[in-house]
Amino acid sequence: MAEAKKTEIKKIAAAKTMRKLMADHFYELDRAAKDGHPKVAWCTSVGPAELLRAMGFVVYFPENHGAMLGATRMANETIPAANAIGYSPEICSYLTSDVGAFLQGRTPLTDAYEGIESIPKPDVLVYNTNQCRDVQDWMAWFGNHWSKPVIGIECYRNVGDVTEVHVDGIAGQIEALVPTLEKVSGEKFDIDRLRDAVRLSRQCSDLWKKVLETAATKPAPLTFFDSTIHMAPAVVMRGTQLAIDYYNELLPELKQRITDGVAAVEGEQLRLFWEGMPIWGRLRDLATLFLELKACVVASTYANSWIFTTLDPGDPFRSMARAYTELFIVRSDPAKETYLQEMIEKFSVDGIIFHDSKTCPNNTNCRHGMPQRLQERLGAASITIAGDLNDLRCYSDEQAKTQIEAFVEQLTGRAKQHA
Amino acid sequence: MAKHYTLGLDVGASATKAVLLDGDVDVARSLRKSGANFAAAAQACREEVVETVGISVDEIGRTVSTGYGRRSVDFADNTVTEITCHARGCYASFPHAITIVDIGGQDNKVIVIEDSGDRKNFKMNRKCAAGTGAFLEEIANSLDTPLSSLNELAAQATGDVELGSFCTVFAKTELLKLIAAGTPLPEIVKAAFRSVGRRILEMDPLQGDVVMTGGVVAHNPIVVELAAEALGRVIQVPDHPQHTGALGAAIIATEK
Ligand code: SF4
Q1: Are residues B231 and B114 located together in one domain of the fold?
Q2: Maximum Cα–Cα distance for chain A, whole Å?
């Protein structure tokens, strides 16, 4: 029995509040879609959510729904339906699982929240291709289905230093969304409301950053797997007071863990970094495996993607543009490597796990020689796991498990040798 | 009773291998098909080595299991991954910096070992059958030729026919084209072996001294020959290439 306890994932008490928040979020969307007001905007994950809130929309994030499809493993059944209508198994499996689920008339929301029969019908769909081209195609499919406007920002890619030229370009595109949004919402744009949303978004981001940085402590009070769950308010409620209140509850709990010496991974021996998308359908399995191996995944590029330190209510459009362009996913490899180096140092990382996510080349960074360069330059050991965010047909449990175990054997063996 | 023997068991996807060590001397080895019952294959392998040496199971001090079915061996004292065991087994024969290429039934591994024996990195390729033993089985099936005769057939070939495709299904359609064109069987088989070598070279730059192991290498030495030709360097092979994982497991068993 004592053995079993050791591999139990430690519960975070604030999770209860989060579950309530998420329920309220989806019920609010459901009500709005059914009543026809306030208007519903769909927004891709780092799309201009602050602007949408400032214009009175309730905001729905399809990628969050995609992650739910993955985590519940409903995606396994829905992806083939999208494949069958010509959306290839090679493209974003958030897109294919979401479109497939819609074609089948299903959503995990129905199982989680009584009375919600479907995803909320949008009044407008807004993308930012800072994630990838797939988000645009995805919004286009639904926009087409409901004959609703699809508007967005086409961002720069492979950005080294973010310059004023980049900022001007993106800020101009964000401003250009306003007339359509005014038309759909029936509300006049008000710069003060935007400043307010940007201020709230920044506060949320700062708190989320502090939450993640608690894991720099040894032993870490939270893992990457915890963060994939507790990031939800930062993802779907940024720009609202609710998200801020949530992290004001979570942060002290984690700080208390630090004071009490409570480790998320009992007997933490190794500290790892997760690079790339989560494997949503295997979060629990992987979290448990790392617990057994006494290895803590202390940080990730994924959870860090909702930190926007440059948001500034004094200069809302331009600071949004800067924040959306400073994002890891749109940066050049040298910029990404500098960032990873900082992470390795800050979080005392012993090794990196690269997730080669079959259907998400944009959030996969091991395909252009980065692991090899990091090993050469920094001596950073790494492994690459083949998998996918949602499509478990691309993932082998046994192969991943063996690789992770072998990596831990390698790192602990090396630690012993040099102790 | 002195328990100076240690046992290493490598329960692979296709074959289960055992190595029994008396101190650091390899005194017996066995090999079985893993089949559908990993535990039974491991048990049978243990019985075989014990019988060979004429000892009782109780005289085995420690057993370490490795390989795909390592957790199925309930009598093992410990489980260690095949990556670590292959590295240890190979380093025992070649105690310096080496790059190990293991071609297994279902996967390929490239393991880079430093001079000290520390592992620098490793890669596994099990996304598909390309370049593995499973690929050769498919080819043997398509050609209606016993797997065990492939090496001999390929040795008779003199040409340089190639299979270009990445994927096993595509490679098989290429085979059909070769058959239709009347290409002699030995040439086709050699092309299949050449393709196995190519898949390996795509995995890693294979720097320094290269050592090849695994069942495919044990039964088809031509793979080593063709890979060495493509690499432009000599490739070494340990005495018992299919047993390196089991040997590594047995060595690790002596340490705890
Ligand atoms: S970034 Fe990846 S997971 Fe996100 S929408 Fe694009 S392809 Fe899908």
Answers
A1: yes
A2: 68
The region that residue A123 occupies, defined by phi over 0 for left and psi between -120 and 50 for alpha, beta otherwise, is alpha
Residue A345 lies in a domain: yes
Q: Give tens-digit pLDDT for B127-160.
A: 677 778 888 888 888 888 988 899 999 999 998 8
Q: Domain count for chain A, please give it.
A: 1
Predicted TM-score (pTM) of the model is 0.92
B220-228: average pLDDT: 92
Q: Which CATH number do you get for residue B56?
A: 3.30.420.40
Domain range for B204: 97-237
B118 touches chain A (CB under 8 A): yes
Whether the pLDDT of residue A188 is over 90: the answer is: yes
For A409, the closest of B68, B80, B120 (CB atoms) is B80
The lowest-confidence range among A49-53, A201-205, A404-408, B182-186 is B182-186
pLDDT (tens digit, 9 = 90+) per residue, A116-143?
A: 999 999 999 999 999 899 999 999 999 9
Ligand 1 binding pocket includes A136 (Cβ within 6 Å): no
Residue type, A380: A
Nearest alpha carbon to residue B116 among A379, A349, A378, A413: A413
Give the number of the atom of ligand 1 that is nearest the alpha carbon of residue A138.
5
- Shortest Cα distance, chain B CAs vs residue A158, angstroms: 26
Q: Which residues sit opposite A340 in a β-bridge? A: none
Burial (0-12, 13-18, 19+ Cβ within 10 Å), A15: middle
